[in-house]
Amino acid sequence: MAVPVVDPSLNPSSVEADAVVADPPRRARRRPARADLLAIGAYVLLGVLVCLNYWGDVEHRVSSHLPTDHSWFEWLFAHGAYSVQHLENPLFTTRQNAPDGVNMMANTSLLGVTLPLAPLTLLLGPQVMYALYLGAALSATAATSYWVLSRHLVRSRAAAFAGGAFLGFAPGIVHHANGQPNFVSNFLLPLIVARVLRLGEPGRWRRNGLALGLLVAYQVFINEEMLLLTALACLVVVVAYVVQRPRAARERAGSFLAALGLGGGLALLLTAYPIWFQFNGPQSYRGLQGGVFHNWGEDLVAFVTFARDTIAGDEAVEKTIGLTEQNTWFGWPLVLVALGALVLLVRRSVAARILAVLVVVFTIASIGPVVRFNGAETDVDGPWAYIPDDLPLVEMMMPTRLSLIVVAAVGVLLALAWDTLAGAGRPPVPAPRAAADDTGRADEADARPDRAASRRRVLRLAGYAAIVAALVPLIPRPLPAQDIDPPPRFITAGGWRPYVPEGRTLVPVPIPSNVHGLHTLRWSALTGHEFPIPGGYFIGPNERGEGVFGAPNRPTSTLIYSTMDKNVVPEITEENRRQAVDDLRFWRASVVVLGSGPREAVLRDLMAELLGPPQRVDDVWLWDVRDRV
């Protein structure tokens, strides 16, 4: 099949970029296919390496960086399986935060992944699915990036491999793999960008528009925030192209706008109800309380620092400047190589100039409201200081994550730089050999091209070495993991069943929240959501309709958390006991269960003061409260 080029001017290394490449001979086709398989195989191995610590004991290990997020996404895989198995609406659930429930569209629910993978989750369990999917998502992102680069931008498979590897396993991406698989599930984004760049193709606006609409609609159910970042990047790319190639842009404007309108209309049609549900359905909210993300900007020193999860990283550094997220963390060698590549390519390549615009715009945008330097806030205002934090979308954005667009730009730049080096090494068309005269001048003329070719070869090898030297320190290490206690046998063996009738809840102690109850949240996930629980780890509305993390605390949950923090049972009054019964009635509780875990002894004493002596059933302490509520 012929391979169309998006725009000849975007490809600096293509000699005949405006030509349609004819089908190559069978032997020539085998080589790219073999290179493709090798590239994908290498990406798969990297994905396995990143998750290696989980596989050591996949059922009892979670991320030591974000253990609560890890447990939340295990819960999400169980939610997808439960929704498919019971044919329930996946946009909402009451299996967490009972009885109010959770709006799954208003949370990072990953429905585009958990629903189609539901059969595997039912077969393997959410812990195995989490680790399996995490590595696969990283590898798939690298693979689709490689495919787009090799088919639409560069000729060298090695260049596409280097760019794809960085786009899939950049330090900022691997950092999010610590408990946030939604931010490494970027395998559709390269396809979306490629499709946007092809919208102006004459005669193909219907096909391109339909393809874009389907891709965008599906990405909504994976990660809306990354889709928004991609849309912002595409907007800057299109504007930068129009400024540099106004004539070509005018010629393609009709097809581009028609395809864009068709794609946007299709995406809106497919996602209209879920998006309405997200903002208007039960447990929806408007913005986050206090704009908690608005102040999270990227530290300037982070750009030249090695990330913790790379072979050159240092855990001590992240305690200084890694207080929010590690989204860039390129290390100083890559920053130097990227700057050098931009300087060398920006005059000869439209693509390089567009990448330069992306780097400048989104580096500045990622700084946030205050410039941070080496972990300290300076007196210099950042760009977000002049943006109201209550604007729609803006109120939910985290400035530092805009630097992920810079990550993507650097990945493409690496591919362009490598491809330019490879193009410099391709043999030119030989010129007719001049006849030698008696003075031997023809031999001298032949020697000069040889010396020039030798210099080019040395410079090319130096360029390859610089790129490799910048990338090797960024090879990821296995993500840090920690052991976690398994759920009680009472839970996993179904001992709870006689105590929890339909329509009632099991109240675990501590009640899950964004701070406490990591291990009790997993009880729900690892039993396939067979019983609903109060509390949880999610974003829901407060009394003013603003988004807050976790369920609003009730008197009993507040008492439990304060007792855990102080490790002392406070003096319990009759009012405390009355409030406990009211809370259990609100939660529709049938049984309160305390298993082994942090602060078990003090929590047992607290609950005994509130509810009376517990029963010892199997390996848990149990309070049967059905006759009280």
Automatic annotation (TrEMBL):
Segments of this protein annotated with the region Disordered: 428-449
Residue span(s) of domain DUF6311: 78-377
InterPro entries attached to this UniProt entry: DUF6311
Pfam families per the UniProt record, alphabetical: DUF6311
Positions of transmembrane segments: 37-56, 130-149, 158-177, 227-244, 256-276, 329-347, 354-376, 396-418, 458-476
Comp. bias (Basic and acidic residues): 435-449
Record key words, sorted: Membrane, Transmembrane, Transmembrane helix
Protein name per the record: Membrane protein
